[in-house]
Design goal:
The protein has about 475 residues and is an alpha/beta fold. The chain has 17 helices and 10 strands. An 8-stranded mixed β-sheet has the order 3-2-4-5-1-6-7-8, sandwiched between helices. A two-stranded antiparallel sheet has the order 9-10. The N and C termini lie far apart (about 90 Å).
Length: about 475
């Protein structure tokens, strides 16, 4: 009996990513620079013409810069898209191929080729072998129908079997399954006010509970709006809420620090979601010396927590997270999700001017509008896990409140209206107008719509006592 096992090297995706990263760190650019300088001096001496030396040295610097640029792109491919097959060489490539299978290797190499990445020699050889095999593979043709006479001379017909990888249609995959089903990753959700971040996030948290029932969820809600309570009900194991719009900056800083301290004391695997990161950062910037602490904490959550099941999600109103210390390589550790409402295209312009999205995933404004037209909710969604813009699907609105129409959804049955009834009971206001403005924080032209929705909810619940309480 032999102990030989050629398939014994089974590594995790993270280990393959680390191997790919190590292979591109030593790209030889320093030798090109040194060689260019030496050859430049030699050329200048041999020709007696100094500009010749400068040209040769310049070639060395340019070649080194090109290699470094390619290495940086490969780092993005590894960290952001988890693509490694086009980089691996030698035994690493063969072992990776043996572990994941040829279909996965083809998928990754073709993805890299379409985006202009340079392939390793082993990746190129692999593609050539696949093409040769495909071109020589015969296809058996069905026998002709009996009504058609067969030719007298028997001929062998061989067709080329060519197969091309086709990415899944935008409508074919499970949005939440792809987002959290296989593995929970650090996420950055971008969308201006009213875009639909709360709906996407609450559905994602619901999916976390379904796919990973042992994972705890810690939510920090700096808005504290009553009509959004349903987003967190039944999904957040720990919920910290405050209306920071009514707080002084130093009070916000103190509260966020307390929230982070509580999160760090939660045992086991726990997902931290911080809503309204942009507003939180604004408060920290207003307090002298507070911002470095916040940046350090966010960096810690993003860089170190993933391996221990301490994942970090954050929602922001624009993709510029530099104030929070998230830029460059750290941003690549956060899967981006961008929600665009065509009625707010200025938000899209601000996103595409940042490095948040890959260069080939910044379609024109008209293209975004066309994608949104296919959506039942009129939104375009960039899905970071599959690296595609898709029409946003209709998702469960757990808040029970439609932000677009400013009305309550199915007030007779929705759990959110039960919370509304409780809040009406507890309120010390004596008019619906003051309740809506002061307790719910809603003013302006939408106030009357909300007022009508509350009256309908009270009537459907047969609460005449509340009608009398808020008679003014």
């Amino acid at each position: 009996m032999s102990a030989f096992n050629p398939n014994s090297r089974q590594l995790t995706p993270q280990e393959w990513q680390a191997i790919a990263s190590d292979s591109i760190e030593d790209n030889g650019s320093q030798y090109l620079i040194i060689g260019g300088i030496v050859l430049g001096l030699f050329a200048a001496s041999a020709t007696g013409f100094p500009p010749t030396g400068l040209l040769v040295a310049g070639w060395g610097f340019y070649s080194a810069w090109q290699r470094t640029k390619q290495a940086n792109r490969n780092e993005v491919a590894i960290n952001n898209y988890k693509c490694v097959a086009h980089i691996l060489e030698g035994d690493n490539f063969r072992d990776f191929r043996s572990q994941v299978g040829d279909a996965e290797v083809v998928k990754q190499i073709q993805w890299a080729t379409e985006r202009g990445y340079k392939l390793s020699n082993d990746a190129l050889d692999f593609l050539e072998i696949r093409e040769d095999e495909a071109s020589s593979r015969p296809i058996s043709l069905p026998a002709p129908p009996a009504s058609i006479p067969s030719p007298t001379t028997t001929q062998t017909q061989t067709l080329t079997a060519t197969s091309y990888y086709t990415p899944p249609s935008r409508q074919e995959f499970d949005v939440m399954g792809e987002m959290v089903g296989k593995r929970i990753k650090n996420q950055l959700i971008v969308g201006i006010q009213g875009a639909g971040k709360g709906i996407v996030i609450s559905n994602a948290l619901e999916a976390v509970k379904q796919y990973h029932p042992g994972r705890k969820i810690f939510v920090i809600d700096p808005k504290g709006k009553a009509e959004e309570s349903g987003y967190w009900e039944g999904r957040a194991d720990y919920l910290e809420r405050a209306k920071i719009i009514e707080m002084e900056p130093h009070e916000v800083v103190k509260w966020i620090k307390e929230c982070f301290d509580k999160y760090m004391k939660v045992p086991g695997e726990c997902l931290l979601f911080l809503d309204e990161g942009t507003a939180v950062a604004s408060s920290f910037k207003s307090v002298r010396g507070a911002m470095p602490w916040l940046k350090s904490k966010v960096a810690h959550f993003v860089s170190l927590g993933d391996g221990d099941g301490k994942n970090f999600w954050m929602a922001v109103q624009n993709g510029d997270t530099s104030d929070l210390g998230i830029s460059g390589g750290m941003r690549s550790q956060l899967n981006p999700y961008v929600i665009i409402n065509p009625e707010q295209m200025s938000a899209y312009e601000s996103v595409i001017n940042l490095e948040l999205l890959p260069k080939d995933k910044k379609p024109s404004g008209d293209a975004i509008k066309d994608i949104a037209k296919e959506s039942p909710v009129g939104r375009a969604l960039y899905h970071g896990a599959v690296n595609e813009w898709i029409p946003m699907q209709r998702m469960e609105n757990y808040s029970g409140f439609d932000r677009d129409s400013r009305t309550f959804i199915n007030p007779a049955k929705n759990h959110q209206t039960e919370l509304l009834i409780q809040k009406l009971q507890q309120s010390n206001k004596n008019s619906l107008d003051s309740f809506i403005v002061e307790d719910l924080g809603i003013a302006g032209e939408k106030k009357e719509q909300v007022k009508q929705g509350i009256k309908e909810a009270i009537a459907l619940h047969n609460r005449n006592d509340l009608l009398q309480k808020f008679q003014r």
